[in-house]
Amino acid sequence: MQSRARISGIGVAVPERVLTNYQLSTMVETSDEWIVSRTGIRERRVSGPDEFTSDLALAAIRDLEAQGEGSLAGVDLIIVATSTPDYGFPSVACVLQDRLGLTDCGAIDVNAVCAGFTYALHLANGLISAGLHRKVLVVGAETLTKVTDYGERSNCILWGDGAGVVIVEVDDRRPMFLAAHLGSSGEGGRHLYRSGLSRRMAGLPLAGDGLIIQNGREVYKWAVTAVPQGIEQLLKKACLNAEDVDWFVPHSANLRILHAICERLGIRADRLLSSVELHGNTSSASIPLALAEALRDGRIRPGQVILLYGFGGGLVHAGVLLRW
Fold it and tell me: Which class for 10: exposed (0-12), middle (13-18), buried (19 or more C-beta within 10 A)?
């Protein structure tokens, strides 16, 4: 099916509180040098006690409106990608629908963790291109610091909070979506999960209810293999090569993973856009945070080929290829 959709606006938001590597070194045995050398992260943002995923998402939407890049008029579906919803239910999307005062509007949350934003974009493009919707608000928002075990050194250094939002709407003259690729490796879910109601992952470490647990070594091994393979399939669908990509915007897990992926694909490091240095790993928010910065400083220009690729807990991955 040929795309009939394009992204017409973007907004982002992060909490005010900054948590630096030095501050973390007073909480656990670590250092700025150790964290930067292994992850590229220098600081991250932390949501307040009464600040939740819907609050950051709403702030990102207000930022979109303030930029004058898009209007909420006519939005007929909200898709929120998040693994840290305010509640088990109602969904964050329903909370936003109410707070925005939108009517005749569907609302759904998608949990594909760090691939959530690209999964949500794929859904929005498909629904619009099929003629089922005309204007979709796509949100990637997380408050991961609320589910972080700050006694676990190797994991607590990674996570940050943030939100990004785009409007995807019908455009038959200049559609933006070139191709997409989705994949999953469910057998690896035990290497990156959030504890919950089930205790079926026998023999695996357990933390307090709802906390993130990760085997970083295994996730790294999976990502540097599965992601390049997925990207090669995505580029093949669009009849393009790595050299045709103007900007590569992957999920900002950590710089070691991103540089390894670039090296395997032959994508130049100066074509990489990341939000990890100042925001840490913000899961579904990491791609829109990096995308918005490059759009606003003029690096991304009309006609350029943009490769978005999310990957993470599940284990899942998803890529979307755009011509801006």
Answer: buried
90 burial type by CB count under 10 A (0-12 exposed, 13-18 middle, 19+ buried): middle
Measured in degrees and rounded to the nearest 5, phi and psi for residue 95 equal -60, -45
Are residues 19 and 157 in contact, defined by beta-carbon separation less than 8 angstroms?
no
Do 160 and 282 contact (CB within 8 A), yes or no?
Answer: yes
| Residues involved in catalysis | 114, 251, 281
More confident residue, 13 or 199: 13
Contact criterion met (CB below 8 Å) for 83 and 54:
no
Q: What angle do CA 43, 48, 53 make, to 5 degrees?
A: 90
For residue 189, pLDDT over 80 is answered with no
Distance, in Å, from the CA atom of 166 to the CA atom of 7, rounded to the nearest integer, reads 7
Residue 108 pairs in a beta bridge with 79
Gap between the Cα atoms of 269 and 74, Å rounded: 39
Interval 141-166: pLDDT, tens: 999 999 998 988 888 999 999 999 99
DSSP summary character for residue 26: T
d(CA 110, CA 95): 14
- Give the tens place of pLDDT for each residue, 21-57: 999 999 999 999 999 999 999 999 999 999 999 999 9
Can you list the domains of the chain with their CATH numbers?
A: 5-170 (3.40.47.10), 177-323 (3.40.47.10)
Mean pLDDT, rounded, of the chain: 92
pLDDT digits (tens, 9 = 90+) for 72-130: 999 999 999 999 999 989 999 999 999 999 989 999 999 999 999 999 999 999 999 99
pLDDT beyond 80 at 186 = no
Please choose, from the candidates 133, 56, 65, the residue with its C-alpha nearest in 3D space to the C-alpha of residue 96: 56
Say how far apart CA 309 and CA 59 lie, in whole Å.
24
